C-alpha cells in the first residue's frame, strides 16, 4: 500500500506541474471504473504467470486512446516496475489525494427512496457548510432505513434514519426492562 501511495503522489505532483490535473483525474476515474468493473481484468493484472509485455499490451488496448499520454506513460512505468497488481490501490490513492488537493469530500448518502434535485442540492449545501469542502454526493437507496438519511463522510457516519432511531429506542427499552 505504501508503494501505491508513493506512485499516486508522484502522479499528482506531475499532473500539477504539467497542468494536467483535471485530465489525469478523469483518466483515474475511467481506470477505476473499468478495472473494478471487470473481475477478469483484476485477475489478469494480478497473475504472476502472464508476462509484463502481455499485461502492458492489454492495458494499452483498453486505455491507450482513452487516456492522456501522461497516464499512458504512468501505466507503462507501473508495468515495467512490476506493480500492475497494485494499480487499483494506486488509482484509489490518487483520487483521495486529488480530492484533498482540490478541497473535495465524497459523501455517501443512504436513503429509503430517491431524493429530489432540490433535496440533494440542500443536502450538499448543508454538508459543504459543515465540512468546509466541496461535496460530491453518491446516493444509495436502501428501503430498510425506512426514512431519513445516513451520510458517510470519510470515517464519520451521521445517521438520521428511522431505522437507527428505532434501534436506539429498542435498546433503551431492553436495558430498562
Give me some keywords for this one.
62% helix, 177 residues, Glutaredoxin, Peroxidase, domain 1, 8 helices, 2 domains
Description:
- The protein has helices at 2-17, 21-36, 39-46, 52-63, 69-80, 87-102, 117-131, 162-176; strands spanning 104-111, 134-141, 149-153, 156-159.
- The chain is an alpha+beta fold and 177 residues long.
- The chain folds into two domains: 2-100, Peroxidase, domain 1; 104-176, 3-Layer(aba) Sandwich (Glutaredoxin), CATH 3.40.30.
- Strand 1, helix 7 and strand 2 form a beta-alpha-beta unit.
- The longest helix has 16 residues, at 2-17.
- It is elongated, with a radius of gyration of 21 Å.
Summarize the structure.
This protein is α+β, with helices and mostly antiparallel strands. Helix content is 62%, strand content 14%.
By secondary-structure content and strand pairing, the structural class works out as alpha+beta
- In round numbers, the mean pLDDT is 92
Question: What is the share of helical residues?
Answer: 55-70%
Shape: elongated
CATH fold assignment of the largest domain:
Peroxidase, domain 1
CATH superfamily of the largest domain: N-terminal domain of the delta subunit of the F1F0-ATP synthase
Q: Please tell me the CATH architecture of the largest domain by its name.
A: Orthogonal Bundle
What is the count of structural domains?
Answer: 2
Low-pLDDT sequence parts:
none
Task: Kindly report the spatial arrangement of strands forming the biggest sheet.
Answer: 2-1-3-4
Amino acid at each position: 500500500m505504501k508503494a501505491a501511495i508513493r506512485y499516486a503522489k508522484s502522479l499528482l505532483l506531475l499532473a500539477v506541474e504539467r497542468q494536467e490535473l483535471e485530465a489525469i483525474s478523469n483518466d483515474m476515474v475511467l481506470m477505476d471504473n473499468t478495472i473494478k468493473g471487470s473481475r477478469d481484468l483484476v485477475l489478469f493484472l494480478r497473475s504472476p504467470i502472464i508476462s509484463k509485455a502481455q499485461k502492458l499490451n492489454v492495458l494499452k488496448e483498453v486505455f491507450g486512446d482513452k487516456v492522456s499520454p501522461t497516464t499512458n506513460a504512468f501505466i507503462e512505468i507501473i508495468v515495467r516496475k512490476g506493480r500492475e497488481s497494485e494499480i487499483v490501490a494506486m488509482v484509489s490513492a490518487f483520487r483521495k489525494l486529488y480530492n484533498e488537493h482540490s478541497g473535495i469530500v465524497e459523501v455517501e448518502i443512504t436513503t429509503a427512496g430517491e431524493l429530489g434535485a432540490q433535496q440533494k442540492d440542500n443536502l450538499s449545501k448543508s454538508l459543504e457548510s459543515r465540512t468546509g469542502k466541496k461535496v460530491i454526493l453518491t446516493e444509495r437507496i436502501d428501503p430498510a432505513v425506512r426514512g431519513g438519511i445516513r451520510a458517510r463522510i470519510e470515517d464519520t457516519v451521521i445517521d438520521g434514519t428511522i431505522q437507527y432511531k428505532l434501534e436506539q429506542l429498542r435498546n433503551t427499552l431492553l436495558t430498562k426492562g
